[in-house]
Amino acid sequence: MKRRPTIRDIAQAVGVHPSTAARVLKGDQRISAETALKVRAAAEKIGYKPDPMMSAFAAYRQSIKPAGFHGVLAWITNFPTAAGWHNEAADIYFIGARERAAELGYTVEEFWLRDSGMTARQASQILLARGIRGLLVPPQPKGRGHLSMDWEQFSTVAFGYSMIRPRMHLVSPSQFRNVVTLVRHLRGLGYRRLGFMSLIHMDERSDHQWSAGFQSELRALPESREIPILVPPLPSEPEFMTWYRRWQPQAIVTTETLVPLWLRSAGLRIPEDVAVAFLGCQKPDERAGIDERAVPIGRAAVDLLVGMIQRGERGIPKDPLRVLVEGTWREGQTVPAQSAPKLKA
Q1: Helix axis angle, 88-103 to 294-311, nearest 10°
Q2: Euclidean distance between CA atoms 23 and 11, whole angstroms
Q3: Is the pLDDT at 50 greater than 80, yes or no?
């Protein structure tokens, strides 16, 4: 039987110590870029594959030792401005990612791809020159986005479904399950006529899982089936209020924070006249709905990325993984804690 290639074989082929080859394959960024490239090229040429049992043992040993500094993970943003990526969810993803990275011996640094007319090639070269091999890609400016970089040189994890090309490993809220959880909570309170409202671009960013999850639950809510979902391209108070007055839902499932304002401007009381349940709540406020648990999402992304770095996994994966974190119901003032009003006859 053919012998499995080892790290010692790689080291001999390159002319370095086995410990140097091992550090390169673990993603140690203190090794020179030139040596690292030679080690990875030799590993690919001789067909080296990590022993899964040894990798598991090494990961266990690492987990019980205090974390030293292992390197930098880049937080890659592609918005028109350097601060454009900040929003309620992404900010907390970053907090969770930075927290978990510190526990594992890494720092997380922002890297703006549009800085000073930078090209994708330049960005890749700068990251490689700094010894950065791990990339975290937060949600893109628009749904169905794409990025062009020298992906074969990096281990990469994306957040959510807004980047459709290339298809990388990703960590995301479990948006379909979150809608199911929300709707079933409203059903448990006695609501039977539910409406759904989100902007097109928001539903696209969830890969249409929000609207799909909502419509899947209508089988148990015959009173809601006649109410069409409202998914306009832009926020429009007149369009929303026309829809509301025509269909009179008891409760509205939405992503839009303007909905309570529009309803109150029309003289309606929340939740006495109509309840409003939100998808994607991140911070405590008056909103009732789904807490997407953004900190665990950020932490899970770093766990996935660091594991890839340690295993020497680079480039566009053949079988991209989807790690989904389920949210939980959070009480708020826009949905009563007890029961819904009775349906009018």
Answers
A1: 50
A2: 11
A3: no
Q: What is the dihedral sign for C-alpha 25, 26, 27, 32?
A: negative
CA-closest candidate to residue 156, choices 167, 145, 164, 146? 167
Over 235-250, what HEC string results?
CCHHHHHHHHHHHCCC
Non-local CB neighbours of 144 within 8 Å, separated by 6+ positions: 162, 164, 204
**Look-up of token digits 């030293």:** 68
Neighbour count for residue 182 (Cβ, 10 Å) = 26
Question: In 10 A of CB 195, how many CB atoms?
Answer: 23
Q: Mind listing the pLDDT tens digit for each residue in 301-332? A: 999 999 999 888 999 999 999 999 999 999 99
All domains of the chain in start order, with CATH: 7-63 (1.10.260.40), 71-167+295-326 (3.40.50.2300), 175-292 (3.40.50.2300)
Tens digits of residue pLDDT in 103-158: 999 999 999 998 887 887 899 999 998 989 999 999 988 777 788 889 999 999 99
d(CA 288, CA 229): 20
d(CA 101, CA 249): 45
Using the structure block, give the residue that is written with the tokens 């997407």. 292
Residue whose token pair is 């960024």: 29
Q: In what order do the strands lie in the sheet with 155-159?
A: 106-112, 71-77, 134-137, 155-159, 169-173, 322-325
Going by C-alpha positions, the residue among 60, 59, 21, 27 that lies closest to residue 41 is 21
Cβ(74)–Cβ(135) below 8 Å: yes
**Minimal CA–CA distance to 73: which of 25, 135, 17, 23?**
135
